[in-house]
Amino acid sequence: MTASASYEQDRQAVEKLADASKRIREELSKAVVGQEEVIDQLLIALFAGGHCLLTGAPGLAKTLLVRSISDVFSLDFSRIQFTPDLMPADIVGTEILQETEGGGRALKFVRGPIFGNIVLADEINRTPPKTQAALLEAMQEHQVTAAGTRYTLEEPFFVLATQNPIEMDGTYPLPEAQLDRFMFNVYVDYLSEDDEVSVITKTTGKEDYKLETLFSADEVRSFHDIVRKVPVAEEVARFAVRLATLSRPNGKETPEFINNWVSWGAGLRAGQFLVLGGKARALLRGRAHVTVDDIRALAEPVLRHRILLNYRAEADGVSVEKVIEKLLAEVK
Fold it and tell me: In b/e form, how buried is each residue of 30-56, taking b as 16+ CB within 10 angstroms?
């Protein structure tokens, strides 16, 4: 392929994703009011092929947003309500005994709700660790194992898990190993007064909107390939790596406030997701290159669940967002 042909192909790919972003937002606005930043982060994760953890109070349309995205992309949507008595087999599936045509009996595997393109794990911190762990293999390997047999999940496969930060009694916080599997921790905040008025007006009247299906599962997979091909300069990749490195306490160049407030910093996946998310963000904005500003914009959702604060930070009233803000000011 000649240089001019390659350039033309790249230009068309950039235009395709930028146009896709605009059309998706216009379609989602029929169902979801406001939450532009949340939508932006979810689309970046979807185009990059990552999973998301959504944290926010009840009643902020998290389920509606996820379902609407699955409708726009013509993806199979599956919702799992996590409860304290939920077992791994309830989400993965189980074998049942069935009669065959010859009069005999045979075991047949009945798939659970994990077999979907977009899986909404609602209130994931309300179920015991053994059931939470059933998601680990699916999220990392895109497969599940039941009765010694492996079953491959259909691509694309996304897990969007929600957790309620208000009620912590009787919940099971996700272990760090599983939190690290999520590309973003997206914070869903309350709407502005004008947006709340729009929501109330819309939801108390007759719903007459219908979301148009814009893209197929095959097109989503092609978007993943386009994102991976975006080049990234070494200085941009190094900036992402330094953000993760300097968040770890007791390092050679670690800032003093990290040593004082942080018990555990971000790992290798943080740098990977910063760069991969930066690629998707650049394409959605019509650019074929990643900038430091792309990395900075994604620092909070990538690092929010990877930096663990200690008791001194809690005593000082310091939030993880404040630590990330100071870290961004520190890294040049």
Answer: bbbbbbeebbbbbbbbbbbbbbbbbbb
Q: What is the pLDDT of residues 137-152, one digit of tens each?
A: 788 888 888 777 888 8
Residue 120 pairs with which residues in a beta bridge? 79, 160
Question: In this predicted structure, what is the pLDDT of residue 20?
Answer: 78
pLDDT in tens, 245-267: 999 998 888 899 999 999 988 98
| Domain boundaries, given as residue ranges, for the chain | 1-83+114-202+215-229, 230-332
Angle (nearest 5°) at CA 207 between 202 and 209: 105
* CATH T-level assignment (fold) for domain 1-83+114-202+215-229: Rossmann fold (3.40.50)
Which listed CATH number (1.10.8.80, 1.20.210.10, 2.50.20.10, 1.10.8.60) goes with 230-332?
Answer: 1.10.8.80
- Residue whose structure tokens are 């916080």: 173
Collapsed DSSP state (helix, strand, coil) of residue 124: helix
3-state secondary structure of 79: strand
pLDDT of residue 3: 45
pTM of the complete model: 0.88
